[in-house]
Structures are given as structure tokens and as C-alpha cells.
Amino acid sequence: MMAMAGVKTWGVLVISHGSRNPEWVLTVDESICKLNIPSGMPLDSSFLEAVEGREIQDGIDALEQKGVTDLIVVPLFISSGSTHMEEIQYALGLIEESAIETDIGRMRLRARVHFCAPINDDPLIAEICLEKIRPLSVHPEREILLMIGHGSDESGFGDRWQEMLGAMTEQVRQMGGFALAATATLHPDEIAERVAQLEQAYPEYAIVVSPFFLSEGYFTKKVIPQRLSEATRVRYNGAALLPHDNITRWMEQQISRFL
Questions:
Q1: Do the two domains 10-119+244-256 and 123-235 of this chain adopt the same fold?
Q2: Closest CA to 131 of 164, 176, 77, 196
């Protein structure tokens, strides 16, 4: 199907990280399948790695074969500080050079790309964070909210991660009425030290931990619990953002800004 000259044919490509765990992929796909977009608008979902036959180029090719001239790309990632955001923008030709080393080459691409921002500190996502930790909170006025993110060791990217994580944590703290808020990342590895500092400085407070990760997996089930193993007043349930309808609503908001 060829678009008429001068007429835009919109399509949507959602790009997420990918995993060899089929449950992870299914959880992402279920959120995308719920998208409420204009009838007939082509939609595809691609992964950065680890999902055979569903790489970024596969998604682009499928949409362009349907006549898409204008491609709304939704990066389903947590932070603008993610190095993967740099890789994706380079691959799509949105930046001339990547600030980091990447083995992802340029994509074959005819459609114009309209690139959305990642999740960052969006209020819809803050609602999810609070909902997921509600069962852990008994007296929020005597609790510290600790949000843990992936972070980055790369110069510049780590600063963006810290700024975003701080903004999200304060937003959730206010919504939930927590006494205090703090953050920690896996890169650099701050978790055990931060928890020890909080327990020493505030012995009368419990620490409610919110993992700011898209989906449950290795980091939420193994790495973070290991880092928290020496803590004595920590409450943690490992609940990540997905599954939740607000993820779908967030994607819809990103898409609607271009339509």
C-alpha cells in the first residue's frame, strides 16, 4: 500500500529492551496490545535484543511495508539517562554520533521518525510506584521511601539518572505521605551503603523500598534482595511497574502528542 504524495500515514513502533524470558516479553506485549489508537493505524513492537525475529529493523520493515511514512517511536524505557536511549536514537539516525560504544548499526529507514521521551518521572508512573508499595506501608509518617533504579556508570548518563530518580522519588513521597525520601542505584552500586546510612541516621523509621524497574526479573528478584540482606528495618516486595494499565495509558499519551 503506497501513501498518496504529501499525505502522512502514521504508524507506531514501541521499542523495549528485550529478554530471553518469554514471560517478560509476554508482559510487555500484553500492555501494547491494549493500546487505544486510531482504528487501522499500523502498530508493531520491537526489542533491543534477545527476541529473535523482533529486532528494531524487523519492526521498521513491517510498518513501512504497510505504507507508513511517519513513525511514532515509543521507547519503553525508564530513564533518559539510559545508554540504550542513545543507542536507539543513533540507530534511527536522530543523532550523528553515539556518545557510547554500540554494536547497533544504522537502520534502513525511509519513514520520518517522531521520537517520544521515555518514562522518567511521569505522574502516571508515579501512581504505579505508590500502588505497588502500598501493602508495605503501615505508618508512612514514620517511614522512609527508598527508590532504587538501575543507574549508569557512564559520564553524563549517571547524572540524568540521578536527577530523574530524585524527582520521581519526591513525587511518590508526597503522594504517599512518607516522612523522608532517598534514592540508590545499582550503577554505581549504592544500595547497601545507602540503607546502612539511613538505618543509622533514622533508627525510629522503617524503610519502604520501591524498585523503579519496568518488569520483574534478575535485578528485582536477585540483585536488590542481595544488597538488602544486611538491613534490619527494610520492607521490600520486589513489585515492578508491569503489569499495570497505566503503562498503556502512558504510551497512549506519548502517541497522542503527534496525532
A1: yes
A2: 176
Question: How does pLDDT run across 148-166, given as a tens digit for each residue?
Answer: 999 999 989 999 999 999 9
Instruction: Please answer whether residues 130 and 123 qualify as being in contact, where contact means their C-beta atoms are separated by less than 8 angstroms.
Output: no
- In CATH terms, the fold of domain 10-119+244-256 is Rossmann fold (3.40.50)
Residue spans of the domains in the chain: they are 10-119+244-256, 123-235
Find the length of the chain. Answer: 259
Let me know: does 126 contact 171? Beta carbons within 8 Å.
yes
Task: Please give the Cα distance from 14 to 68 (Å, whole number).
Answer: 14
Gap between the Cα atoms of 252 and 249, Å rounded: 5
Q: Measured at the alpha carbon of residue 81, what is the angle toward residues 119 and 251, in degrees to the nearest 5?
A: 15
Residue 187 has what DSSP assignment? E
Three-state DSSP class for 108?
Answer: coil
pLDDT tens digit sequence for 96-113 = 999 998 989 999 999 999
Mean pLDDT of 45-69: 92
Burial class of residue 215 in the structure, from the number of CB atoms within 10 Å of its CB (0-12 exposed, 13-18 middle, 19+ buried): buried
CA dihedral sign of residues 19, 22, 25, 27:
negative
Confidence tier at 3 by pLDDT (50, 70, 90): very low
User: Span 123-235: which CATH code?
Assistant: 3.40.50.1400
